[in-house]
Amino acid sequence: MSEQLLLEMIQRLSVAATLAFVLSQTSIFRRLINRRNTCQDALLLTIFFGLVGISGTYAGIPINDAIANSRVVGVMAAGFIGGRFMGISAGIIAGGHRYLLGGFTSFSCALANICEGLLAGMIHKHYPGRPIPWWLALVAGVFGEIMQMGIILLTARPYYLAVELVSEIALPMIVANSLGLMVFMLIIKTATEAQEKISAEQSHKALHIANKTLPYLRRGLTAESAQATAHIILATAGYDAIAITDTEKVIAFTGAESSHHAPSVNTSLTTATRQALATGQVQLARDKSEIGCAHAGCQLASAIVVPLKSADRVIGALKLYYTHKSNLGQADIVFATGLAHLFSTQLELTEIDHQAKRADKARMKALHAQINPHFLFNTLNTITSLIRTKPDLARELLIKLSMIFRYTLHKTGQNITINEELAQVRAYLAIEQARHGEKLVVIEAIEPELGHYLIPSLTIQPLVENAIKHGLQPKPTGGSLTIKAIDCGDDIEMNIIDNGVGMDLAAHNPLEHPSGESIGLINVHERLYGQYGSSYGLTLTSQPGQGTTITLRFPKCLTDEVDDCA
Predict the structure, then answer these.
(1) How far apart are CA 105 and CA 153, in angstroms?
(2) How many CB atoms lie within 10 A of CB 193?
(3) Average model confidence (pLDDT) for the chain?
(4) Cα angle 156-161-163, degrees, rounded to a multiple of 5
C-alpha cells in the first residue's frame, strides 16, 4: 500500500511543477528576482502559494478520513522565496482550507502547515538575495514532513487512528513531498539564472552602446547627438527602427519607415510616446493601433517606448521599433530600460557639467568686476599724466587698454590659443611698464610651436598681475618678470618668475590658505584642476627676498574637448 501511495503522490506532483513553471514566467517573479517587488506583489505571491498548497490538497489521496497530500510544497516554497511572513501566511491559507474540510487530522494539518511555512522562512533568512540550494530544499522538506507527522501524533485524536495513519502515509509523503519541493525550487532556480543571464547579456549590450554614444550625448540632447545615437543603436541592437524625441517632437529617426517618421517629414508624436512622456513609465505597443501612427501604410508593428529623464524630469523618449508583431519579452524590456537609464544618467551629468561651466563663467565675470576698476583707475591716471608730455605713448596705451577690454568682453570663459592669451598679457604689461618705467623688466622665453595650443582665457594675466603687485611693487628697486613656456611631451608647463620680495610658504601658502589677495591665483588653479583633472593646476616656489616662481601645467589641447588632448 505504501509503495502504491508513493507512486501516486509522485505522479500528482506534476501539478506543483507546472505551477512553479507558470510562476517563473510572470512579471511578479521577475520583480522578485530583482528585489523590486511591492507590497501588492507580496500579497499576490502569498495568495498564489496558498493556492498551490490548496491544489496539493485536492490532488491528494484520501486515506482513513485524512488526505495524503502535497500542501507542504506550496507552503514551504513560499517561505523559501518570500521569507517568514509569506511562508506563515501561505500556511494559514492552505492550512485554513484544510481545516474547513474537516476530519480528525484537520487541526493537526493546519497547524503543521503554519509551522512548515515558519521553518522555510527561517531558512530563507540565511540566504538573503540567493535562491535556496536544491539539497537544502530536499533536507528541509524531509524535516518539515517529519515535523508534520509528529504534530499529527501529538494532536490528532483518537490516538490509535493517528498512529495508524502516520504509519501508512509517513514514508510516501516524506519522500514524495521532499522530492517535489526540491523540483519546485530547481525550476525556480533555473528560471532565476535564465533571467539573470538575459539581464547580464542585455546590460552588456546596453553598456557597449552607451560607451559608443558617450561622445555624442556629452553635447546634450540635440538633433545631431540624437541622430548619431539612433544610428548606433540601429546598427548594434537588432531593431528595425529607432527614434528619439524631446518633450514635444521627434528629433531623430532612423530605419524602416523613415520616409514618414523622419524629423524632416513629420515631428509629431505617436500615442504611445505621448503616454510615456506624460506618465514617465515604459510603454509597450504590441500592435499598430497601440503605436498610434497616423500614417495608413506604416509597417511598424510593435514598439517599446522608454522615457529619458534628467533629475526625475522627463526630457524625452527612446523608441525601439519592430516591423513584425512582437511579444516584446523581458529581454527587450531589460535592454530598453537599461539603455534609457544610462542615457538619462549621461544627459543629467552633461547638464550638471553645463551648469558648472555657466557658474565658472559667472565667477570669471565676478573676477573681472573685482580686477578691472582698480586696474582701469591706475591706467587712466597714467594716461592722463602722459597726454601732455608723451601723447604718442598715451595714444598707444589707450589702444592697449581698449584691446584688453575687447578681449574681456569676447573671450571670457572660453578656451583660446596661447598666442591669443599672450597678446592680452603683452597689452597689460605695456601699460604696467609705462607706469613703472625701468623698474619693470619683462623677459619672454616662449617656444613658438606651442602658441597654437589652447589654454583657458584669463589664465596667465592674473598670475602676471600677482607677480607685479605682490612681488615687484613692494621692492623699492623693482625687478624683472620672466614668462617661460616649456614643451613637456603631452603637457605644457609655463613659469611666471619674479625676483621680487618673495614669501615664506611654510608660514602662509596662498594656494592652501586663500585670502582676499590671492583670488586670482585660486581662480586659475581651480579652473585648471576642474577642467583637466587633479594632475594639473598651479604650484608655488618662493624664498623671502629671492622672488617667486608660479608654475602652471596643462595638457596639449587643440579642441575644447578634454578627451582630445594629448
Answers:
(1) 10
(2) 12
(3) 84
(4) 80
Whether the pLDDT of residue 261 is over 90: the answer is no
Residue 308, all three cell numbers = 529619458
Burial of 410 (0-12, 13-18, 19+ CB in 10 A): exposed
Which residue type sits at 163? V
| More confidently predicted of 428 and 253 | 253
What is the number of other CB atoms lying within 10 angstroms of the CB of residue 247? Answer: 16
Amino acid at the residue 277? L
User: What residue has cell string 514532513?
Assistant: 145
Q: Which residue has the higher pLDDT, 15 or 428?
A: 428
H or E segment to which residue 223 belongs: helix 223-237
- Mean of pLDDT values over 353-377: 60
Question: Radius of gyration over alpha carbons of the chain, in Å?
Answer: 39
Q: Which three cell numbers stand for residue 123?
A: 531558512
**N-to-C CA span, the chain:** 84
CA distance 174 to 180: 10
Half-sphere exposure of 356 (CA within 13 A, CB side): 10
pTM for this structure? Answer: 0.46
Do the strands 479-488 and 491-498 form a parallel or antiparallel pair, or are they unpaired? antiparallel
- CA distance linking residue 244 with residue 265, whole number of Å: 15
Angle (CA) 129 30 288, round 5° = 160
d(CA 93, CA 47): 8
Residue count of the chain:
566
Are the beta carbons of 210 and 308 closer than 8 angstroms?
A: no
Distance CA 62, CA 162 (A): 14
Higher pLDDT, 54 or 529: 54
Q: What is the pLDDT of residues 463-506, one digit of tens each?
A: 998 898 889 989 988 899 999 999 999 999 999 999 999 998 88
Q: What is the pLDDT of residues 206-229, one digit of tens each?
A: 778 888 888 888 778 888 989 999
User: What single string gives the DSSP state of each residue in 261-280?
Assistant: HSTTT--PPPHHHHHHHHH-
Comparing C-alpha atoms, which of 443, 450, 425 is closest to residue 498? 443
**Cα–Cα distance, 517 to 72 (Å, whole number):** 79
Q: Which of 183-192, 374-383, 456-465 has the lowest mean pLDDT?
A: 374-383
Residue type, 122: M
With beta carbons less than 8 A apart as the criterion, state whether 114 and 92 touch: yes
**Mutual orientation of helices 71-82 and 106-125 as an angle, nearest 10°?**
30
CA angle 416, 435, 424 (to 5 degrees): 5
> What span, in angstroms and rounded, lies between the C-alpha atoms of 455 and 418?
6
294-303: b or e for each residue (b if 16 or more CB lie within 10 Å)? eeeebebbbb
Is the bond preceding residue 158 a cis peptide, omega within 30 degrees? yes
